[in-house]
Amino acid sequence: MLSGLIMFKKRVLREVLSCRLYTANYLLMIEYIIRKANHYLRILEEKKNLKKGASRK
After folding, report:
1. pLDDT for residue 55
2. Residue 57's pLDDT is what?
3. Cα gap 30→42, rounded to integer Å
4. Phi first, then psi: what are they for 21, rounded to 5°?
5. How many whole angstroms separate alpha carbon 11 and alpha carbon 1?
């Protein structure tokens, strides 16, 4: 679900930058949401990997 949000926001950003879509959101806000979502996804993946490593011991 999070990956879907990231892909959607990237698509919105591309469409806005190419003037094919209008949004009331500022471009910096869209970029911020993408950065935060990617950061959160990395955290989740790290926790998942740590959990896998702990269960193998």
Report:
1. 74
2. 60
3. 19
4. -145, 140
5. 15
Concatenated DSSP letters of the chain: -HHHHHHHHHHHHHHHHTTS---SS-HHHHHHHHHHHHHHHHHHHHHHHHHHHHHH-
Q: In tens digits, what is the pLDDT along the chain, a chain of 57 residues?
A: 889 999 999 999 999 999 999 988 888 999 999 999 999 999 999 999 988 887 766
Residue type, 47: K
For the chain, how far is it from start to end, CA to CA, in angstroms? 30
Q: Is the distance from CB of 22 to CB of 11 less than 8 angstroms? A: no
